[in-house]
Amino acid sequence: MIHSINHVVEQTFSLQGLKWRIKALTTKKQFAKVVLLNTLIYQVDKSFSYIETPG
Q1: pTM score of the predicted model
Q2: What is the mean pLDDT of the chain?
Q3: Angle at Cα 20 formed by Cα 16 and Cα 23, nearest 5°?
Q4: Distance (Å, rounded) from C-alpha 32 to C-alpha 3?
Q5: What string of H, E and C letters represents the secondary structure of 1-55?
């Protein structure tokens, strides 16, 4: 968690951070939301598929 926070702070003052700020302004989203959308790593643990069979 601390590593990811440090990474976000480093990116905030970089070219990538500038791109995120521009994206936040053009999409009218909060800068924090843009950062989270671009830095969160998620994993799918389970996936279910439901197939309807005739009859």
Answers
A1: 0.55
A2: 81
A3: 135
A4: 17
A5: CHHHHHHHHHHHCCHHHHHHHHHHHHHCCCHHHHHHHHHCCCCCCCCCCCCCCCC
